[in-house]
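Q: Give me the 3D complex with NDP.
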Amino acid sequence: MNEKVRCLIIGSGPAGYTAAIYASRANLSPVLYEGMQPGGQLTTTNEVENFPGYPEGITGPELMEDLRKQAERFGADIRFGMATATDLSAAPYKVTIDGEKTIEAETIIISTGATAQYLGLPDEQKYAGSGVSACATCDGFFYRKLVVAVVGGGDTACEEATYLAGLASKVYLIVRKPALRASKIMQERVFANPKIEILFEHETIGLTGEGVVQGANLVKRRGQTDEEQVHIDIDGFFLAIGHKPNSGIFKPWIETDEVGYIKTIAGSPRTNVEGVFASGDVADPHYRQAITAAGSGCQAAIEAERYLSEKGL
Ligand code: NDP
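A: Here is the predicted complex, encoded as structure tokens.
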């Protein structure tokens, strides 16, 4: 027999746990499935210094553990398991967990996050948390007056390079093509910044350093007759080559943009399916911060509560 729940939360980042705190305090008896990476992207971050309420900073795993405990304190039922399929054709909505069990939910809060894209180099793993980052806003502060590189040529790369140039002594922007893809205004900002040096037609093939990143090996014009090996000395290596929202299992029912971000009704976590809400990075191509995710998790829980009470459920 299928298990019936009033409020199902999928995902355990700041959005999911915050939704669980609010939903359990509103007596929605939420059930939360944590997914593959309990705690989400923040568990791969060392120090979080920009989440309000922690004047001395806190580690990513500790912050997520605190949020989890806070949700459990109010009775949220937090379970290990992964949503693997959905049927949102009619309420109650059906969600398959681990390919086996089916949950029937009156409301769903999707907080499955987004995954930063990496180049796929073994060195990215080797130096994870030791000079390799996919979030300049999170980690840029640790590179004050140091030299960093940003990979990518889109808006995110330009934004992150400009942000880092305000902290670091020098920023290399490593772009695989001969031109940037970013919007004109972002490009102009990068071109006008004397601290940013753009390395067009460069690809990263490896990172170097004793325990921490100290350099990057690049190839210029790979495969061309004038191919060249280039080495740069850097202290930090930032990926900005896009994020992949974890929205695949909802796509038959839920509208997404061309990248896969769930479309919500402006200023709210409502999706095109009534009673199904999206919060956090899976619906946010712009901010992607722990605090904005937490805020939207709160909104989603409040909307879920209103929806259930309007329906008398
Ligand atoms: P994009 O997909 O726009 O750009 C990704 C960049 O990474 C491209 O330059 C791409 O190169 C490069 N890239 C991809 N894979 C590799 C690889 N393996 N090696 C090297 N380079 C690689 O992603 P963004 O995150 O920049 O932007 C996503 C969306 O969010 C966009 O719509 C953007 O406009 C929007 N955005 C808007 C902002 C704003 O308005 N303030 C800020 C940030 C994002 P190539 O060009 O060669 O394909």
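A quick observation: The chain has a mean pLDDT of 95.
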